[in-house]
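This part of the workshop introduces the protein records we will be handling. Getting from the letters to the tokens is the skill we practise here. An example says more than a description, so a record of this kind follows:
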Amino acid sequence: MTKIRIKQVRSKIGRPEDQKRTMVALGLRKMNQVVEHDATPQILGMVKKVNHLLEVEEVK
């Protein structure tokens, strides 16, 4: 399965509560934190919801 690396590059302060909860569900709690996940449809849907706060790259 393909893996993706997700980095939080913008703050979640002032964002709607559902976006904040999505960030926590992805494992992102601090600025510039990086996490890796499998590219499942569920994870990709969460990334799409908050993509304006993230940088995403595919891991080889």
